[in-house]
Structures are given as C-alpha cells and as structure tokens.
Amino acid sequence: MLDAKNTWDNTRARAALRSMFDAAVASADPFRVLAAHLPNKPRGRCVVVGAGKASAAMAAALEAAWPDVALEGVVVTRDGHAAPTRHVRIMEASHPVPDQRSEAAARAIMQAVQGLGPDDLVVALVSGGGSSLLALPAPGLTLDDKRTVGRQLLRSGATITEMNIVRRYLSAIKGGRLAQAASPAQVLTLVISDVPGDDPSVIASGPTVAPSGTAEDAISIVQRYRLDLSPAVHRVLEQAVLDQKEHKPQPDPRNRVVMIATPLMALQAAADKARQLGLAPLILGDALEGESQVAGILLGGVARSVHLHGLPVRPPAVLLSGGETTVTIRAGESAGKGGRNTEFLLSCAHFLGGEKGIWGLAGDSDGIDGTEDAAGAIFAPDTLARAAQAGYMAEPYLRNHDSYTFFKAVGDLVMTGPTLTNVNDIRLLLIA
Q: Which of 148, 256, 265, 400 has the most other CB atoms within 10 Å of its CB?
C-alpha cells in the first residue's frame, strides 16, 4: 500500500502550488530585503526617487529602515500599487501604456534631483513597470508618439528587453539621464529585477544606468517587428545613433547599483518551500522567453517525461521556471482577455490533455497578469473535463488569446491583488 505521505490529490497539489508561489513572491517583499542593502547615512540631503510596481512599497520600507533621516522625494507606481509613506510623495500612473500622469511624474522626479551637491545622496528605487510610468518624451516627441510606440511593441511579440531598448532612446529620463541630472550627488539604485538576465539598464529602461543596447539596436528592433512609427520617432532614433558615435556614455564611479531581489532568488525561495513539502525541485531557468503557447507545450513535455520516465528528475517533483514569455497578436487574430501566464498554462493543460498526476500554476509576481485582475491561473488533471462539461473547450480560447475567460469559467484563476513587488513570472509544474 502506498505511503500516505506520497499520495497527491487535487486539494494537496493545489495547496502546495499556491504555497510555493506565495513563497516566491514573499522573497521579494521590500520590507524583508531592502534594509540590508542600505549604505551609511548621508551627510547631506537624501532624495528618494523611483518608478515601478514595487517603488511605493520600497519607499515605505526605506522610511521604516531610516526613521531618523530627513527623507524627501517622489516615486511613481502603477494604479492600485501605492503604499503609505510619511515623507516620500507617491504618485500613480498608467501601465502598460503611459498617460499624462506618467509624464507629470517623470517631470516631478527630474525636478526632485536638481541642485544637489557631492554630500547629498539620491536613492533610486527601481522595479519592473517603470518604463511606462516614467514617460518623459525626448525633445521632438510627444506623449502620443510614445504611446503609439508602446502599443505597437506590446502587440508585436517583442521581448521585454527589446521593448526597453527602444523606449530608452525615446526618453529624456531613461538610459541614465536621471543620474546625469542628479550629478554631482551620489546615486544608489536599489533594484527589484523583473527581466531575464537582471540587466539594470533594462529594468524600467535604466533611468540611472548607462544603456547597454545601442541606438542602432533600437532601429533594428523597429525594423524587425515592422513597427509603423512617425517621422518624428525615426528622427529621434537616427539622431541618437549620431550622438552615440560622438559621445559614448561612461559609467560614473559614484553611482552604485544593487540588486535586492531577482527572479532567481524568487525561484530559489519556491524551491526551498518545495523541499519542505516533500517535492524534489528542479529550476529550469529564470530567463525563459518565447511565445507563451510554445513554452506551454515545451514545459508540458518535460513534465510528461518526469511523470513517465523520472527524467530529468524523479517524482514527486516540481519544475520551476521564470522569465517573461510573449503573446503575439497577429493580423486578423482576435484578442480576448488573458495574459502570458494564463495563455502559457492553458497551452500546457491542452497539451497534457488531462494527464493524471500533473498540476500547474503560472502567475505574475506583481499580482496582475497582463491587464486583467488575476495573477495567473492553476490547472489540475480534471480542469479540461470540468471546462468541457460547462461548454468551454481549450482550443478556441487558445486561438483567440482568451485564456482568462476560460480559467474564470472553471474557477481556476489565481487572485492575489497587487503584491507591491515584481520579480516577473513564476511557473510551477507539480508531478506526483
């Protein structure tokens, strides 16, 4: 008779998946990780600026860690992601497409770092989502120009890294320009990463970091995805190419960048929780990219191999992965409700076809998968059968990029609300 400790049913598997996901998110809680990375307190002023889905919580954590420092400044976060602060002004703006508040916030942040001296310290709190929240158009562009570019990038299938390379060359604050405006003050950038590879020049398009991708890279991305951009945008990109050839950006030794939370750290926290639950964890990578539906099939195939052959890990086990997949809406396709995590998960469930002994959860660590109100979703061996009984077949919902509607119909959405942090997507496949 099988030992009860080794038996898995829907209730136990679902609870295990959710506890691992929650552990991953908790590992990036600013109140848990920020204080350990602070420097000596400054002799002069301390100006706090920042942008991203976690920036308000990071500001609140900084105030808690330095209650005796006269902090000042402003940060911008996504609507619904604010946190209470005493000294740092919190602004909210639109994500993923910028609005007028995004431009106003960028101007307020640039103003906050004016007139500083060498004894002053700027603490920049940067996290994912900051690109659309800091929308200060480069000279010659309007906010509508930036919105148009943003919308086309989101629909193109471009990776988050490619999107941010283009964005930073259309901005008057990104690509290190915020740090330049703060000179000669010291700048400490505390980063919660949400991008593959944890490149600080990519996260929120690097407002305090010299760009790694070139202006020529940005033009190549525009051409690769056949973006239909205005003449003004093309002129700005072409001028950026000329400027870079004449003046190559140099890093400032007075500026430091510290990663305080990353996708890999979150996956490691989930793996620790898996071991406590009696599961063998296997981290497949923190930087997986590609089409969500294709990734669902590929990782579903790995899960099937574990189930049937015990390779590449013996069950009971959990496969963990991070990174950001993409959902490409092609010409002529309809776009329903859904994000990259629910689309990945529906593709995986459809591929597995209700195979016994495999469960999955995929969710965005910020609590919002795309533009909907769910972090992601969960599937069980009986999900497809329950959906079919209610009249919902997986294939048409995949075809119409309507995965949110599918999982909502069967009650399998994962709802967390805004988590006030962001270390990208967490994907978990549990094999009993």
A: 265
Phi, psi angles (nearest 5°) of residue 303? -60, -40
| Secondary structure letter of residue 114 according to DSSP | T
Rounded Cα gap, residues 365 and 262, in angstroms: 11
Which residues touch 132 (CB under 8 Å, ≥6 apart)? Answer: 93, 94, 95, 96, 97, 98, 102, 150
Q: What is the pLDDT of residues 25-71, one digit of tens each?
A: 999 999 999 999 999 999 999 999 999 999 999 999 999 999 999 99
Please say which residue of 227, 242, 261 terminates a domain: 261
CA–CA distance, 298 with 306 (Å, rounded to integer): 13
Segments in 310-361 forming alpha helices (H): 340-352
CA gap 121, 188 in Å, rounded: 7
- Omega of the bond prior to 312 within 30 degrees of 0, cis? yes
Nearest partner of 398 among 340, 339, 364, 347, judged by Cα: 347
Which of 294, 407, 391, 405 minimizes the C-alpha distance to 351? 294
Give per-residue pLDDT as tens, 148-182: 998 899 888 888 788 888 988 999 999 899 999 99
Task: Specify the DSSP element, H or E, that contains 399.
Answer: helix 394-399
248/360 same-domain check: no
Q: What is the mean pLDDT of the chain?
A: 93
Give the structural domain span for 128.
39-261
Residues 393 and 407 in one domain: yes
Q: Measuring CA to CA, how many Å separate 163 from each of 13, 71, 150, 155, 167?
A: 36, 33, 8, 11, 6
246 and 282 housed in the same domain? no
If one counts the domains in the chain, the total is 2
